[in-house]
Design goal:
Shape: globular
Largest sheet: 4 strands, antiparallel
Low-confidence stretches: 5-33, 168-178
Distance between the termini: 46 Å
Structural class: mainly beta
Number of helices: 1
Length: 178
């Protein structure tokens, strides 16, 4: 303590949780403004939900060490794909528009996700997959990645696991797209 003020220690868990809650558009009630210069036209705190989705996938987020939280808008154009890749950290995505087709490299299974649905991506090099837009309109996703601070990107390119996916992925894009 100094000058009679208590020392406040921040918990990394709380800080990361607060960042994730804001990134996910969590609702919260505005509190009274602490500053007198806030006008009545501007609320002291505001929040806008950009997208939301529902998932039944079970998941846990376990982190050893510090993490970066990325909040991204990804757009996959018609006929484009993310390319084969895996994630270096946890990723949760909400589909805002379009139909996103996910191909699992381990068994070549295909699952489609539409507006209002979410997906939770597994982590690690044994979870290679690809996202494809087989539709006629862009797919828009809002994505939260929780990755190691040493990671330079949320995903890593991976070799084609041998799935016969057809011509709809001829416009492969960077793995940064998803």
């Amino acid at each position: 303590m100094s000058r009679g003020h208590p020392v406040v220690k921040k918990s990394r868990l709380v800080t990361a949780g607060a960042v994730a809650a804001v990134a996910l558009g969590a609702g919260f009630a505005p509190q009274a403004a602490a500053r007198a210069d806030v006008t009545s036209d501007v609320p002291p705190v505001s929040s806008v939900t950009l997208s939301q989705g529902v998932t039944s996938a079970p998941f846990e987020i376990k982190a050893k060490g510090d993490r970066k939280v990325l909040y991204r808008k990804a757009v996959v154009q018609p006929g484009a794909s993310t390319g084969w890749h895996y994630h270096v950290g946890e990723e949760i995505a909400a589909i805002n528009s379009g139909t996103f087709t996910r191909i699992d490299g381990s068994d070549c299974s295909v699952k489609e996700y539409g507006p209002g649905e979410s997906l939770v991506e597994p982590v690690g090099p044994n979870t290679v997959h690809m996202g494809v837009n087989r539709g006629t309109e862009p797919v828009e996703l809002y994505v939260v990645d929780i990755i190691p601070t040493t990671a330079t990107a949320p995903s890593t390119a991976a070799p084609d696991p041998g799935c016969d996916i057809g011509p709809a992925t001829s416009k492969n894009t960077s793995t940064e797209a998803k």
